[in-house]
Give the backbone structure.
Amino acid sequence: MEDRKVEAAVGMTRKWDAREAGREVARNTIRQLKSQPNFFLLFSTIHYKDHGGFEEFLNGVWDVLPKGTPLIGGTVVGFVNNYGCYTRGASALAVSYPNMDVVLGIGKNTKRSPKRAAKQSVGLIKEGLKESRYRNKFLLNLISGPEIPSMPGLGRKKIIKSGLFSKFAMQAFGISQYLAQKGLGREDEIFEEIVKELPDYNMILGTCMDDYKALSNYQFFNDKVYTNSLVGLGIAIDIDLDVCTTHGMKDTDVKFEITKLSKNKHIIHEINNKPAVPELLRLLDWPEGFLNEKTMAHIILYYPISVRRHDREVPAVVTFILKDSILMPCIMDEGEVSILTVSGKNLIHAMKNNLRSFDRIQPEFGLSSTCITICETLGYKINILREEITDYFGEKPFIMFFSAGEGTYSPSKSITYANMSFNTTVFGSKTT
């Protein structure tokens, strides 16, 4: 077995032109490596859609990247890396190491057929790594995120106050998922299916997004650009790795019981046996009519609900208001839950706790998915977060990307899919 150290590098670009940006991010990344990369992870903000397009962006990457390098990636709201914090541009992570097997997976039509998409990707991962002799297995999943459907007479809105239109919207959300593949990303359904198929893998998940508008997002798979897809990077490796999820949410005294859900368990119809929205307003002491398109973006996101799923409690944000019903981004179970609250101080503390879980690993490189709302909440203080990450990784490369849904899984820690959370994987060597 070849004895060579792990080579890992992070590069980035801030160029506006898509093709030039692709060339620069690839060049800045791989020039730090002495050997050809075993894989290349690529994260981009949505801006290149209007500055040449993502096909040209990938063409630029492949002008520089060695042919045949396994590549996956997607659009994100922003990213934090060794160089700073950005909401425009692109960043990449490349790794070269001989004692590692790599395979890519892809599943299509994620909003229409989430379980089938999961099985498509998992099938490729299983087949590609079944003969690997390396003991530690890892899977990165990047999934197409939510896209707000445009409804006749309504356009793209997050709050529908008319009872008639809300009933139409509930039907439209279901129909649009199957016909136009708009609506919720269904990432949690995909993730649960992947975990069921690959229970011995450590995993991290991130949802592809645009610039917080939820109008379009893209996934990268080798030299192709996709939408409504799941792309996966499967790794079998002989070095240590671990994953961890933390969040900075705190329980409040506002507790209630979800007493009626929709058939698909995404819509809360009743809280405490009363219409959900009026009861939520009463519990929060908010006046009637308080929720509107502005407050949805700037207030309600900071009051997530501790939803239940398979005996787990995780934070999830209110996504849409449909008259008296609440549409949530993930499947949930009935039962008692609470309103959570967040502060910048608690978020930074949550990131510290996340990194402390890796105290016994001397890092070689790392990757983290976190929520777009955290980026919004911290603002310029996001640099404090970066300082915490840099204190742990030192000069070792890392990327944290901002997504619309995130999670981790490990055989020892089970599955977590949440909003407002930090989800990290670290590759390295355990210390005694």
The mean pLDDT is 91. Residues 250-341 form one domain. The first strand starts at residue 7 and ends at 13.
